[in-house]
Amino acid sequence: MQFSEGKKDSWEGVGEKPHQGVVVTRKVGLAGSCSTSGSSGGGITISQNDITAPELTFGAGQPSGQNITVSAGGAGQNMNLTSKTGALNLLATAKDSESGVQAVEIWVNKKTTRVDANGIASTTGPGLLGKPTFDSTSAQKKPGETTAASSILAQALNLSTEIPQGSAPAGESRTVTLIMYAVAVNHLGGRTQTPELMATWSEP
Asked: What is the pTM of this model?
């Protein structure tokens, strides 16, 4: 799978196998609405020892807006939202050729800053998250068992429920920042996390 920052090219997900066991072929693109999860890639035998964490890439894209991506071990990225309604499409892709991928998670937090007519700022969040917003988890397997080498989690975040829809009061400004990252866990407990991807809406 390949994604180019700043472009609206699609990621190809060929032969994805969701955990329900139904084999599908679909194109997952950040520019359009998407919601799917599942495993892909050829089957592997889980090794006895695996000291490396899964490879993990996480991207976000808004129709007619930016597409950006972050990878585990890399730097965080920022994007400006072009609308506070509609979908923000999220795509996490994990791979582990030694012990497969047991879980992929997408975590979404939020920070809201308001500046009143007197220039006084107040900030709410980010809060303490108890569970991921989206996840794709399969039963954990043991060394010697067979599993898929990679897993994909694609979801659409509804901006209308994340960002206040009323206009900011006259003389005031409001900035909402969605703080997101992805997590992947292999079948031997190895865990990796991407840097944060921040999507911001400001008004007026």
From this structure: 0.81
